[in-house]
User: What shape does this take?
Amino acid sequence: MSKLKRKFLPSLIAAAVATSVIAGITMTRVQAADSILQPLAPLDSIEMPIPSDNKYSEAKVVLGKLLFFDPRLGGDASISCGSCHDPEQGWAWAEDFSRGYPGTVHWRNSQTIINSQYMGRQFWAGAAASGEKQAPSAAKGGVAGNGENDIMEARLALIPEYVKAFNEVFGDEWPLIDNAWKAIAAYERTLVQTDTPLDKYLKGDKAALSEEQVRGKAVFEGKGGCISCHYGPLTTGEEYVNVGVPPNKRWEEDGLAQITFRFEQYAKGQTEEGYRKAKSDWGLYYRTKNKWDKGKFRVPSLRYSKYTAPYMHNGVFFTLEEVVDFYNAGGKDEEGRTTLFPENMDARIKPLGLSDDEKSDLVAFLDAFSGEEILTERPKLPEYKALFTKAELEEVKK
Ligand code: HEC
Ligand code: HEC
Assistant: This one.
């Protein structure tokens, strides 16, 4: 191979990878254009995808629930998955930015766990390919769990109930940390809601929606154009789109938020220039490094959103009314602020000219994507037991 070729090989490979990624995204785009005709559908019309190497079992789910709420799967053993995905806060966190690892604040809005495992990729910009891969990145991420594999695994080994459960469920002699993520993902797959007023309505119960909501549905599917992105059983085709969400002002005004913002630029492989200059979340760009992906995020599901305020990847809107006003203004907030990457804004986002009645009908309809609040009792966590008794240790010292 010539020297020159060798020199350029890495960038050629990068280019090839980029093209395949682009191809993937172009494909979803084409799908989306067709899918304008794809209607809303009941969630139980699709199956929860379950990976073949992590089959469902009841014992696994019971273990997964314990682990989901167990802060020992984290750095300082004070923060669990359930801390940022609090069942009482919509299985999310009711602030614009999620709470962070103790002493930090996160930089993105915490997403709900409800229905999350139907999604092909996890996170606002799809950074993780599955629940099994998402869990460790959450437990280990600097501003999230900030844990270390060895330490977390060692802690599990000191908890007899876990040793027993990992053995029964996975055949582990000692709990293996990778199996903890599998158990958690299995538990998350049980957190679904398929009986919302919308599901009931779509299955023929015409009384499940109020008249106002039925009118709102017409706005959603017609003048509002929401259906062109929020469609199908999941109310998303998981396309990556820039709808115009403006940056969160806390990145300029709040020191801690600023530190996390810079840290994330670095951690996500920003260029030197980007690291210095970025003033908003570049979204899908961090994965593809294509400039036309700046400001693009996975179209989120609208299901369960009644309980998951604030909204958007950076939580800039606190109510569904604000979200509707934002879309009605063509992707601008009340001060006229929009994305810092207007060149990437999706052509489907334009001023809608909705009347006040149409807006309130639409907001009423958004309520129909959520059923009863899903609450759960936090499990009583099993306790540590020392590996050796004091007497045994004394014996060794002799
Ligand atoms: C410090 C807060 C925090 C902790 C701890 C945390 N998360 Fe999260 N979680 C978040 C935030 C914020 C996001 C969105 C992050 C992003 O998109 O970059 C998120 C996203 C997710 C998603 C993606 C949902 C979707 O629709 O794509 C899942 C699933 C999830 N978390 C599960 C977990 C699990 C499992 C754990 C424990 C192992 C955990 N989280 C720990 C804050 C946290
Ligand atoms: C061009 C695609 C597109 C269209 C059209 C669209 N959305 Fe969205 N929607 C998105 C994307 C992408 C996000 C996330 C944006 C972000 O975080 O930057 C989003 C976010 C939302 C959220 C917040 C969800 C959450 O969990 O934070 C709501 C609510 C919402 N949209 C409702 C609507 C309504 C109502 C309409 C019609 C007026 C609409 N959307 C039209 C793509 C679209």
Observations:
- The longest helix spans residues 3-35.
